[in-house]
C-alpha cells in the first residue's frame, strides 16, 4: 500500500475513531486505498499515527458501510464495486431522497429554501459544464433534505447509504446523470412552496429516468 505522509491530528471535538474513519473514507474515495487492496494494521498505524484500536473501530464501520470486506484470519481488504452494488445503492438512494423531500420541504424555513437553492445552482452549473462534481451536488442535496426531514432514523441510516453511493460510483466512472438539470426548476418551486409531495414525485421521476438512461448507456456500450 502506498503510505501517505500525512498523519491524523487529534481533535477535541471528535472521537479519534471518527477522525480515522474520515481519513480512510477519503482514501477509499480518492483511490489512495484501491479496490481489492488488503489493509495491513502496521501500515495503517504508520500512516495514520494512531494505535490499532481506533483503526479497527473505523474498519468495523467501513464493513458496515460495505466499503471493506473482512474474513477472520484471512483478509481485510477494500471492497470492489460491482454493477449490482451500484444499482442497489442508487435504487435505495433515490428512495431515501423521495422520503426526504416529502418530509423536509414542508418543514423548510426561508433560510433552508435559500440554502437548498444554492445547491441547485451548483447542480445547474456543473451539469452545463459536464463537470463530474455534479455527483457530489446530488449527494449534498439528498443529505440536506435528510437533515431537514425531522426524522432521526432516516438521518442515522442515510450516513451508510450516502457513503456507499459515493463508493460504488468507482465501478461506473463513465456515468453521470447530466439530465438532472431538467428537474431543477421543479425542485426550486417545490421547495419554495413547501410542497413535499411535489418534491417526492420529482425525485421518483428522476430515479426512473436515471435507470432508463443507465440501461441505454450500458446497452450502447455492450
UniProtKB/TrEMBL annotation:
PROSITE patterns: HTH_GNTR. Pfam families: GntR (PF00392). It comes from the Bacteria. Residues 14-81 form the HTH gntR-type domain. Keywords: DNA-binding, Transcription, Transcription regulation. SMART domains: HTH_GNTR. This is HTH gntR-type domain-containing protein. It comes from Curtobacterium herbarum.
